[in-house]
């Protein structure tokens, strides 16, 4: 994997992105905007399921009306997110918060998968009975909680506290970020 | 007010207890920043739903008044979260903000956005205005908030 990201970091576009003065901030700003579109619209889809907003609309109406925009936001967020990763691949690959974020996205994705599988099967029934199973409400709240954590850990990627290039780190941290730093090498740097 | 006097106030704010406290902590600034970002996403959702309705992109069969009534609380909630986290962030680096063009663009558009939403957009939604007028105010509101968010992110790069 490390070889792969090293190769990735040497591809011309990666070098260009890394060295550009304005491209990176523009992509970063766009990423933030797409986060707002994705999370902001998801907020209302999930709140509908808990019964806080848009009670006059049925679940399936809410989904056909709002969810496409959520998905557009998600796709654009992923594209800009990938570009941000691609600009500095090695650092991101060995970044603790990036790894936490990736892990959280998988969990949030599984939650979304479970949620939509159940919903597609049963939402017509919910519309008729205007009854939503309690499990779905928890799933909606879990979705909001998990994506909030994704946003928070994503914001933390910018900080280098646990970076491989910043030693000494504890063995555990180096293990988590697949960093093979020689601790002896950094002993003289203690206290800097 | 003379600009040097104004700068004195900026230094005073930076040296304030809250500013000092945040700077002395390694974690506080990033954590507040994360919640600032969450606040932006929440406000963003309310803005997108309401303004896209006005633009005729989303929720077309629902009235704009209804969409506003359902999103208003979350707009206010997001805005409150943004302001209450934004002030400490500003205090911790007031001087840097003072010299940042992105900061001044952001603050100007923020004030403009707040005035526009509360004094122009929301009151107009409650009246029966033409769909062209709806599109106009929806487009204006959305554009202003996009600039607020994007220029806010740029403060970190300056």
Outline the structure in words.
The complex is a heterodimer of chains A (192) and B (158). Chain A folds into 2 domains: 156 residues, no CATH class; 33 residues, no CATH class. In chain A, 76% of the residues lie in helices and 0% in strands. Chain A contains 9 helices and no strands. In chain A, 31% of the residues are buried. The C terminus of chain A is likely disordered. Chain B has 158 residues and is mostly helical. Chain B is elongated, with a radius of gyration of 18 Å. Chains A and B meet through α3, α4 and α7 of A and α3, α4 and α7 of B.
In short:
With 192 residues, chain A is mostly helical. Chain A has helices at 2-10, 12-19, 23-50, 59-87, 89-93, 96-129, 134-156, 171-176, 183-186.
Keywords:
heterodimer, A: 192 residues, mainly alpha, 2 domains, 9 helices, 0% strand, B: 158 residues, 7 helices, 84% helix, elongated
Got a strand count of chain A? 0
Helix content of chain A: over 70%
Arithmetic mean of pLDDT of chain B: 93
Distance between the termini of chain A: 31 Å
Distance between the termini of chain B: 26 Å
Helix-strand blueprint:
The complex is a heterodimer of chains A (192) and B (158).
Chain A: H1 2-10, H2 12-19, H3 23-50, H4 59-87, H5 89-93, H6 96-129, H7 134-156, H8 171-176, H9 183-186
Helix pairs in contact in A: 3-4, 3-7, 6-7
Chain B: H1 3-14, H2 17-24, H3 28-54, H4 64-92, H5 94-98, H6 101-126, H7 131-155
Helix pairs in contact in B: 2-4, 3-4, 3-7, 6-7
């Amino acid at each position: 994997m490390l070889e792969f990201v090293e190769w990735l970091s040497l591809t011309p576009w990666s070098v260009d992105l890394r060295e550009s003065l304005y491209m990176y901030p523009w992509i970063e700003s766009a990423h933030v905007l797409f986060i707002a579109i994705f999370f902001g619209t998801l907020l209302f889809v999930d709140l509908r399921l808990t019964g806080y907003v848009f009670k006059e609309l049925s679940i399936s109406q809410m989904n056909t009306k709002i969810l496409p925009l959520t998905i557009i936001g998600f796709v654009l967020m992923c594209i800009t997110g990938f570009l941000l990763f691609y600009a500095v691949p090695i650092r991101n690959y060995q970044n603790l918060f990036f790894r936490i974020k990736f892990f959280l996205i998988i969990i949030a994705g599984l939650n979304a998968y479970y949620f939509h599988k159940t919903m597609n099967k049963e939402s017509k029934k919910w519309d008729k009975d205007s009854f939503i199973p309690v499990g779905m409400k928890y799933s909606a709240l879990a979705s909001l909680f998990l994506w909030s954590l994704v946003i928070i850990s994503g914001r933390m990627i910018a900080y280098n506290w646990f970076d491989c290039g910043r030693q000494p780190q504890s063995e555990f941290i180096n293990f988590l970020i697949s960093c093979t730093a020689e601790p002896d090498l950094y002993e003289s740097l203690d206290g800097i | 007010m003379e600009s040097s006097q104004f700068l004195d106030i900026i230094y005073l704010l930076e040296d304030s207890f809250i500013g000092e406290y945040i700077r002395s902590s390694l974690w506080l600034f990033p954590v507040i920043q994360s919640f600032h970002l969450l606040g932006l996403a929440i406000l963003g959702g309310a803005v997108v739903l309401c303004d896209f309705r006005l633009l005729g992109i989303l929720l077309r069969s629902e009235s704009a008044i209804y969409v506003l009534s359902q999103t208003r609380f979350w707009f206010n909630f997001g805005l409150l979260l943004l302001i209450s986290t934004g002030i400490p962030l500003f205090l911790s680096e007031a001087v840097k903000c003072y010299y940042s063009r992105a900061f001044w663009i952001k603050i100007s558009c923020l004030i403009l956005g707040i005035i526009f939403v509360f004094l122009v957009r929301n009151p107009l939604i409650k009246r029966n205005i033409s769909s062209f007028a709806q599109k106009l105010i929806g487009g204006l509101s959305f554009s202003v908030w996009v600039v607020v968010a994007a220029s806010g992110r740029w403060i970190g790069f300056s």
